Amino acid sequence: MYPALASETYLLRKRPLPYLIGGTWAFMVMAFAFVVPYVIYLALDPATNPDRDDLLAVVLPARLDQTALGSYPLFGGAVLLVLGALVTGSEDRWGTWKVRFTQGPSRTAVIGAKFVAAAIATAIIAAVALLGAVVASLTIATIAGEERALPSAGALLASVGAAWLIALAWTAVGMALAVAFKSATTAIAVGLIWTMAFEQLLSGLAGMLSGLEPLRYVLLSSASGSLVGSLGTPLQSAGGTPGVVDYLSGAQAIGVLLAYTGVAFVVSRRLLTRRDIA
C-alpha cells in the first residue's frame, strides 16, 4: 500500500490539475463569498437599503468560518467532483491502468492509494480556501475600519473539517463515476447534471410531495447543505447561501457523506478488480 500511496501523492504533486482546481476554488471563495458581497454593499444606498449593514457583517472576520463554508454545498462540491473525475479518468485517457496493474501493486492497493491521496489533497484545498477567506475578510475589515477579531480556533477547525468532508465526498463520487464510465468527460457531465440539476429538482419536488420527502435525506447536496447549516451558516430558506439547508442533523449529514465516500470506494474497487483493463 505504501509504494502505491507514494506514487499517487507524487503524481498529484507533479500534475498541474490539483493546483489549478485548488487555486480556482480558493479564488472563487475569496471573490464570490467576500469581495462581491462587499462591492454590492458599497453600491447600495443606505437611505433606501436599511439591511445594508447585514451584508457587511457576513464578510467580516467574525463570521468568515460560516461564510466560507456556505460556498461548498452548491458550488464547491461541483468543483471537487471535477477533480475526482480527472484523477481516475486520466488513467483511462492515457491507458496507464494496464501498466500499473501488471507492474505495480495490486488493483486494490492502487485504487485505495488514490482515495487516500484524494483525501490528503482535499484537506489541503479546504485549508487553503479557508486561508484565502481569512485574507479576504481581514482585508475588507481593514478597508471598512471594522473589527478584525477572528472566530475561535474551534470554529475555524470545525469549518475546515466540514469543508474537507464535503470536498472528499464529492471528489470520491467523481472518482467512482470516472471509473464506471472509463471517461473523465462523461463522468463530469453525468455528475454535474445529477448533482446540480436532478438533485435540486428532486429536492424541490420533495418539498411539495410528501412521498418524495425521504429522498432529501440521502442526496449528496442535501447532506452537504445540512452539515453546513448545522454549524450556524444561514439557511437558504432564511435568505442565506443557496444550498444551505436543515434537512438532516449534523451527525446524520456526516454519516451520509461518509457513506457516499465509502460506497464510491467500494464501487471503484469492484469495477477495477473485476473488469478487463486490456
Strand fraction band? under 5%
- The low-pLDDT segments are none
Termini gap = 23 Å
Instruction: Enumerate how many helices there are, as a single number.
Output: 11
Largest sheet: none
Overall pLDDT score: 90
What does this structure look like?
The mean pLDDT is 90. Helix content is 77%, strand content 0%. α8 runs antiparallel to α10. By secondary structure, it is mainly alpha-helical.
Spell out the blueprint of helices and strands.
Elements: H1 2-14, H2 16-43, H3 52-59, H4 64-69, H5 72-94, H6 97-103, H7 107-144, H8 153-181, H9 184-208, H10 220-230, H11 250-274
Helix pairs in contact: 1-7, 2-3, 2-5, 2-7, 5-8, 5-9, 5-10, 7-8, 7-11, 8-9, 8-10, 8-11, 10-11
The gist of it:
By secondary structure, the chain is mainly α.
List keywords for this structure.
278 residues; mainly alpha; 77% helix; globular
